[in-house]
UniProtKB/TrEMBL annotation:
This is HpcH/HpaI aldolase/citrate lyase domain-containing protein. The keyword Transmembrane helix does not apply. InterPro entries: Aldolase/citrate-lyase_domain, HpcH-HpaI_aldolase, Pyrv/PenolPyrv_kinase-like_dom, Pyrv_kinase-like_dom_sf. GO terms for cellular component: cytoplasm. Keywords: Lyase, Metal-binding. Residues 26-203 form the HpcH/HpaI aldolase/citrate lyase domain. GO terms for molecular function: aldehyde-lyase activity; metal ion binding. Gene3D superfamilies: Phosphoenolpyruvate-binding domains. Transmembrane segments: none annotated.
Length: 210
């Protein structure tokens, strides 16, 4: 049996998930997070030194600790990174520097199996239970439960937010105030910037409607 995506379940119940970013790739830290009441962990592979082996170890530690494992890939268009994160057992992918709905569609092609996407199959992966489970059940679970999380951290994404939120593949979004502030010429002000606050309200309004 493949379990439901924990974050999606919580959001369907109008619960607020508690999560944290993890840059170290150290399983002990992830275990502590699970013991102290966190619901999910975002394992960073964009800015950290985590390689594929460290990422898989982090996913394994998260699942053992009762956390939903999410991976931030190095690039939203990196098919190999998206595929390997999901094959390791991630329940969702954080997509950095999204600029448009087209960017999300491209990532969806990498994340989902046909007919939803174009991802290649391999029953011998960890996520597919090393071929000890029915692979058709796994692909159906993947296409129903994997969450793509566009990171809204570029002015172009703010302008295209209605189209991004309208995509069937998008169930969660993240507002990235740091990169957005820099891209807008606001330096390190982040949410202290009135312009970033305005962008945040626009994104929030769009998600409320969607």
């Amino acid at each position: 049996m493949f379990k439901r995506n924990r974050l999606l379940e919580m959001l369907e119940r109008d619960e607020i998930p508690l999560g944290m970013q993890c840059f170290t790739g150290h399983p002990a830290l992830i275990e502590v997070m699970g013991m102290t009441g966190f619901d999910f962990v975002m394992i960073d592979c964009e800015h950290s030194g985590n390689d594929v082996c460290a990422m898989e170890s982090s996913v394994r530690a998260a699942q053992q600790a009762g956390l939903a494992p999410y991976i931030r890939v190095p690039d939203h268009a990196d098919e190999t990174a998206i595929r390997r994160a999901l094959e390791a057992g991630a329940e969702g992918i954080f997509l950095p520097m999204i600029r448009s709905a087209a960017d999300v569609r491209l990532a969806a092609k990498c994340a989902f199996f046909p007919p939803m996407g174009e991802r290649g199959i391999c029953p011998a992966t960890r996520a597919a239970r090393y071929a000890f489970r029915n692979f058709d059940q796994y692909t159906a679970w993947n296409n129903a439960e994997i969450a793509l999380v566009p990171m809204i951290e570029h002015p172009d994404a703010v302008r295209d937010i209605d189209e991004i939120c309208a995509l069937e593949e998008v169930k969660i979004i993240v507002f990235g105030a740091g990169d957005l502030a820099y891209a807008m010429g606001e330096g390190t002000l982040m949410m202290k910037s009135p312009r970033v606050q305005e962008a945040y309200r626009a994104v929030l309004d769009s998600t409320s409607i969607s």
